[in-house]
Amino acid sequence: MQAFFGERFPTASAEILKGPCGDQDGNLAAAATSGADAAAVAIEWSDLDPRLGLHASGGWALSRQADILQSCRERLWNLSKGLEVLSNLRPAVLRSSSVAKRSLTPPVSAWPRKDKHECRSPGGTAW
């Protein structure tokens, strides 16, 4: 952030306040009460659900998909409320993850058949 600011405004300086990773609610509250002129908020997949993080060790069973989606909905709702408070106080920008999201569906393999192409999940379900 400091480097980008320096490129854009070479004769100015900026104080960048940072919060701990994984505490988006606390970071949004701190940004709202700071004397900052503006705020940049970065969220990663693990901010929505720890199982979506790059360092998560699993938890990708289809039986958990509904729970992961519900967790994401709740976190996004909480983040939207925190961002609403913050953006009413000062300019704010939200940056989402630069890492592509993982699929919550099983991998699919496709292979040709005599009369058509068929796709099957590893469990054997065809569509």
Kindly list the characteristics that best describe this protein.
about 130 residues; alpha+beta; two-stranded parallel sheet; two-stranded antiparallel ribbon; 4 helices; elongated
Itemize the secondary structure elements and their pairings.
Layout (H helix, E strand, L loop, with lengths): L1 H7 L15 H10 L5 E4 L2 H4 L16 H25 L2 E4 L13 E4 L4 E4 L7
Parallel strand pairs: 1-2
Antiparallel strand pairs: 3-4
Could you please describe the fold and organization of this structure?
With 127 residues, the chain is α+β, with helices and mostly antiparallel strands. It has one domain (2-120). The protein has helices spanning 2-8, 24-33, 45-48, 65-89, and strands spanning 39-42, 92-95, 109-112, 117-120. It has a two-stranded parallel sheet with strand order 1-2. The protein has a two-stranded antiparallel sheet with strand order 3-4. Helix 2 runs parallel beside helix 4 (65-89). Mean pLDDT is 78; it is low at 104-127.
Uncertain residue segments: 104-127
Q: Label the structural class.
A: alpha+beta
Number of domains: 1
Order of strands, widest sheet: 1-2
> Which percent range fits the helix content?
25-40%
Q: Would you kindly provide a brief summary of this structure?
A:
This protein is of the alpha+beta class and 127 residues long. Helix content is 36%, strand content 13%. It has a two-stranded parallel sheet.
